[in-house]
Here is the input.
Amino acid sequence: MSIPRWWLLKLAVLMAALLASGCQRTLFENIPTSSVAACDAALVGHWLSVDDDAAASQGELQAFVSSTCELRIVERRNEGPRESGTTAMRTSALGKTKVLLVNAQWANASFDVDPGPLDQAGDFYMYAYDLRGGNRLRLLPVDHRALAERAVANRLKADVLLLDGSLTVRVRGNGKAQSEQLRRVSLFDRSEPLTFVRADASTP
Here is the structure.
């Protein structure tokens, strides 16, 4: 049975209002690829986050990617730098879009994100990425609300939880099934990319 369009529009308006200030996350049960996930050697190195509108914020996040794609983050905080543990970062592709994935449990612990009822061990967070000149890295987050709307309309195999103004989407299925579903979706939000530049210094 198809869901009436008026109901979906009503849902979209309601979600927009509820999510104006809430947290939004999308979890992936598996890496969405039909082949073995790889390690893009172009990402290896020491990276500094940058904000074109706030020069003082450069290096607020430092990312260290080893030759085996082990990722470590150092975050600059008022009380001093905070260093994460390491995690295996994986890269893949959805059509022509390059994507990277990190373990969601690691990311939650590293950035003080509270897990919710949908979180499962082994889930991933995913970003699209592109490299410009080899020294500028742009990450695009998932469009969480768009995926939630597709899931509610039965056009995506995913669970959706809206709780206390926060949205969690969990895309289900094996890697091949997820890849086939997501190729047909406008998946990433290009409005607020996260940008890094390659640092001249080596690991401190």
About this structure: Residues 5-21 have pLDDT under 50 and may be disordered.
